[in-house]
Each structure stands twice: as structure tokens, then as C-alpha cells.
Amino acid sequence: MPSDLDPGSTIFFTLTIDGESLGAFNGCEGLASTVEVEQYQEGGNNGFVWQLPTRVTFSTIRLTRPLTPDTSKVAAWISSVTTGVTRPTAQISALRADGSEVARWGLIDVLPVSWQGPSLDPANPGVATEVLEIAHHGFTD
């Protein structure tokens, strides 16, 4: 019998940009960072090579969901980029089906880089989905 805090329960994600919710998403990919490493071979030290951190890079994040009324909020955010780029902070929260929070990620300097709307094909009766891809400059506390 699963407990109330079962980590295997259904998870969904919410995206908030500067405190304004853009709705819930079913999928979230790309919450990742990579530390680039420079190798330094110290003279006289044959036991190992120093691994020195240089730069941290962050992958883009892809959020997917079925088409909802919140799609207009995403479209408005993307349209605002044409009038001048501001890079707000964002927050992605992973929630259980009952709305309780599993985890939260704060993002610095967020920018929408791609949006893909649904394929509206009457021959394909699948769920109409959208994909939002965002870039950022790192995680906050």
C-alpha cells in the first residue's frame, strides 16, 4: 500500500515566471548542469593529474503538456521577447497528484528559446500537445 509520500506516484510540473504561473506541465527534461574541467599536469607529480573546474554550463529545459487555456500565457511571454529582452527568474516545481511538492528548482535569467504547438491533423486523433523550451543561466537556492 503506497504511503502519502510515495516517490513513485504521478508527478506533474508547474512553471512560474517572476511569480506568474504559466500552468502545469506533464513532462520536464533537461534539468542538468555540467562542470567543464581543465586538466593540469604538475611537474614531478606522476600519481595523478589535477582536474580544475573552469565553467559551468546549463542545458535547455523542455516542458511538455496537452494543450490548455494556459497556452495563451506562454504565447504572451514569448511575444514579449520581441519588444525587448528581459531575463526573469523562474521556478519549476514537481508536484504529486494531491498537489504536495516533491522538489523545486529556481532558475536565473530565463529566456524562451522554442515553442512547438500541436499538430492539428484530423487523421491523427492523438492528444494535442505543446512543447516549451527555455534557457537559463543557472540555479538559485
Tell me the layout of helices and strands.
Layout lengths: L10 E7 L2 E6 L1 E3 L3 E8 L9 E9 L2 E6 L4 H10 L9 E7 L4 E7 L3 E6 L12 E7 L3 E2 L1
Antiparallel strand pairs: 1-2, 1-7, 3-6, 4-5, 6-10, 7-8, 8-11, 9-10
Question: What does this molecule look like?
Answer:
With 141 residues, the protein is mainly β. The chain contains one helix and eleven strands. The protein has a single domain (11-36, 50-140), classed as Pnp Oxidase, Chain A. A five-stranded antiparallel β-sheet has the order 2-1-7-8-11. The protein has a four-stranded antiparallel β-sheet with strand order 3-6-10-9, covered by helices on one side. The longest helix has 10 residues, at 71-80. The model has no long low-confidence stretch (mean pLDDT 89).
Structural class: mainly beta
Shape label: elongated
Q: Would you give the CATH topology?
A: Pnp Oxidase, Chain A
Strand arrangement within the widest β-sheet reads 2-1-7-8-11
Mean pLDDT over the residues: 89
Annotated CATH homologous superfamily: Hcp1-like
- Number of beta strands: 11
Q: What Rg do the Cα atoms give?
A: 20 Å
Element-by-element helix/strand order? EEEEEEHEEEEE
* Percent in strands: over 45%
- Please count the helical segments: 1
- Which CATH class is shown? Mainly Beta
Percent helix range: under 10%
* Count of domains: 1
> Cα distance, first to last residue?
34 Å
State the low-pLDDT regions, or none. Answer: none
* CATH architect. name: Roll
- How would a crystallographer describe the biggest sheet? 5 strands, antiparallel
